[in-house]
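Model: You mentioned two targets. I'll fold them one after the other.
Researcher: Yes, keep them separate.
Model: Target one:
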Amino acid sequence: MSALTARRGLRETPPPGDGPANDDSLQPRSLLRFITCGSVDDGKSTLIGRILFETGAVFDDQLGALQRDSRKFGTQGASLDLALLVDGLSAEREQGITIDVAYRYFATPRRAFIVADTPGHEQYTRNMATGASTADLAIILVDARLGLLPQTRRHSFIVSLVGVRHVVVAVNKMDLVGYDRAVFERIAADYRQAAAGLGFADITVVPLSARDGDNVASPSPAMGWYDGPPLLAHLENVVVEAPARAHRGAVLPVQWVNRPDSEFRGYAGNLAHGELTVGDRVAILPSGRTTTVARILTPAGEARHAQAGQALTVTLADEVDVSRGDLIVHADDAPPLSRSLSARLLWTAETAMEPGRRYQLKLASTQCGAVIGGLHHRIDVASYAEVPAATLAMNDIGAVTLDLDQPVGALPYAESLVLGGFILIDPVSRETVAFGFVGESREARRIASQATPRGAAATLRARLAASLGEPGTLRRSERAGQFAGHLTGTVLLAGLVLAWTENLAAAALVAGADLVLRPLAVIAGRSLGGRVWRRRLATRGAPEENLLGDGI
């Protein structure tokens, strides 16, 4: 047993099955959700396996299975391969990599933990982003021999993107560099410099060896120069505060219309924000109809009051049209409706993004059609700089504008995880092609710009940008092409009139009329076509949702 817990006999640890994780009388003070991420082969699964062992979360039967699996799949020679405690898929064991997200629970006398072991392979970045979306803290592993790698930087940006603000950089495999302090300090300095603009509240850097247990649960004599706490002690004591969300009003995304008989109609979902009380005046979005809350039903029975996070069903005082995907919100504090969203995308599909193509957007319980109207820039993961791009390839991150086929209640991701996070779905293959994070809406920018005094030139530039599209977007390119084609057609028409009539005034009059009337005809035709398209889409919307089988 001692050979397992510390190769060099540095300390003793509780035997498997006898640690605090298995003490039924223990009452942890708080729960911390965290992930391990970083590049492939940096030792993420080994670190989690070591933590599970050190906290006594490995039972006797698991230890026996681990010994057998280590002989068959292990990569540590005659020693136990602790990574096999979390790498359970046969493909993971055969290749020695993590593919899926593995969740494990353990506890110490100070705290309870849920850890997500996420894959480091670039092909499975989408799985890493899924694990990070529910985390309070991220442990980003770095191989001491290799330093920061592109996937280290990509994972750091994704962690920042999903709102994680507490980061631990675990410089692993220090035993393979002779526990060199200079190597550790160089990596720590490089990471702090690289992550300076990512908005992390705190960055803690810990040198360790996950395989041997150095600085995991106890200080390591081999690294006496390190005066910080070991990793587990830091996890036990770190203070993670819930981010302040700007939106306070009640928001209930309707997931299911509950109508068991003709006497009852309720609207079920999870209360995403705020509080609801019987008698509150609420609005239904996107229709805007108002009514009041008649009853609130929870799994524990009928209640007069509900708070954010609760699953509930509400009934309304009036007969109003409410469907799955609608929002029930406080009438005096409703999120804005928008047909256009500015957002950042993490592209996860193997096929590249196609600007101008129609995708399906799913935000909370709302689904609607979305067209990528413009790609503003792509993030260079090596420098986090914004660079021009024509498309996004797999695992690229970029800023886009989405044009929606119906108004959607959305908030910036910084204000609401529920109304700010979405996915894009390929309407043909039903594959999730991107994770999205709502930024500031066009409407919000317009209102802010109108509230700020500015000169005539600035006002003219803003109106041109609104009608022609932002510089560098697909809309601006389309408008420029349309204008060039229109101008060419006008010149040719004027030339024909001049050749036929030999009257310069008549040719000029025809050219002026064409410049004015043709755009009006195009606008009228586009408006009519849009109405027909939306009406046909609405008639197909209800059966399409049922075919998906989404349920509640």
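Model: Target two:
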Amino acid sequence: MTTFNDTRVRPATTRPANPAGRYVLLWVQAVRRLHSSHALDHALRLCRLFRKPLVVYEGLKLHYPWANARHHTFLLEGMKDNASAAARLGVAYWPFVETPDQPGRGLVARLAADACAVVTDDHPAYIVPAHNRALAAKCRVAVDLVDGNSLVPLALLGDKPVSAAAHLRPRIHARFAEAWANRAAAEPDVPREAQSNLAAPFRTWNPAQDVRPFVAGLPIDQTVPPVPGVTGGTTAGRAVLAEFVSTRLRYYAEGRNQPDDPARGAASGLSPYLRSGHVGIQEVAETVLGSLAGWSLDDLNPRAKGKRDDFYCRDADVNGFLDEAVTWRDVGYQWHFRRNAECRTQSAEWKNPSRQMEKVPQFNFETMDFSPGGDRTLDVVLPVWARDSLRQHARDEREYLYTLDQFEAADTHDPLWNAAQTELVRTGRIHNYLRMLWGKKVLEWSATPAQTYRVLEHLNNKYALDGRDPNSYSGILWCFGLFDRPWPPERPVFGTVRFMSSANTAKKFKLAGYYEYVRRLTEGRAPA
């Protein structure tokens, strides 16, 4: 019998499962947690079916694009939490961290050779699509890709990449109640046959060790250090979520756009944990809606379907947050998911690069991997009106021109832009509103739109803890007109692409608190 969540599962091969295999292999790549996980639920169903134990494999290689001490540390802190969770559940957990003396190439395929079946994340961006294609090409057993990205399965949100939040919102609202009734298990139901202490056929990473000294000894970029006071993992992510709901959610609707010290702001601070899969959007929505006394599906407002306000509840702060966290987040995920589907139908011959050794990597949206060709991104993905408008103004004179090194060093004439870039470098974040301004000004101060895109992709993915994510790319590409509309009057450089200025931002917001916050960062004080 077909169930609602069957729409989340996509076979990556036509090969059958092997009931004689030693275990069911769950390879966590994007949903890096052992709760509220549709991939984990599916793997446990296979354990029941084949009466075999579960093996959870979580890996971290050295040479992923933009590998550095900040990203490595955040992910490894999550692996420590997952080791504890696996021990509590009684399932085998095999953490692998690539080192020069223990390379990881081919390891997943070797583990898959002994499996009944492989289950992994159907994540639509960054290195995961290439990983999944490579595994499917080599694996001799069934490989099931499970969409745990969103509350509503992405397969149900349209056959083509969405072009605006207004188009996606009605689809989410129409399916929300059914999706809510079919959430992943908050506490996994682990059958006895899934439990074991199977030993890994390689030297596993020791989660009991101190992460930061370990990372400091690896041959990765050490110029981007971990953020003081910021810890990765489910435990830390849940603490951030609880603090947001208890103290800042109540003024989210009015305060979310105000740049300020994060300790005073209304932003949730959850995006790094969502990006790394340490906390999922399901748990976030459950906690936020749980802050309303007695909330149930009966509180959904059918008259507000497709509208930004009042659908989930009548509380403006809760509803406003969920519209951002669900609708706008799903815009990026659905767009990437459908671009992946379009790529799959174009060719059966794939190269699968998921690493790139260049100093400035570029993702290729034609092949959905890191093959050469990322320099064509704007020509490939922008709507015709935006692409044509930017081309028409490509030769416009720029009052200021900066290099990548100058941008990276926050060395421009604009104090507000420099402050936003400094915040990114020091803390791995930029305030939500200023992130849009940050991108728009790079377009204004770069020789070409293609150069702009290269700068934004690199700086965001190198420094941001929530970078290398569908929403990173959708946010960057929004600066060029994707998910937007023409904005007259026509302007130099921008054409009809939406314009933003630091001067208007200074008129709109009181910025003294934000400047003071960034000044403290430059003095070496840890972010709040």
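Researcher: Noted. Anything on target two?
Model: Residues 1-148 form a domain with the Rossmann fold fold (CATH 3.40.50.620).
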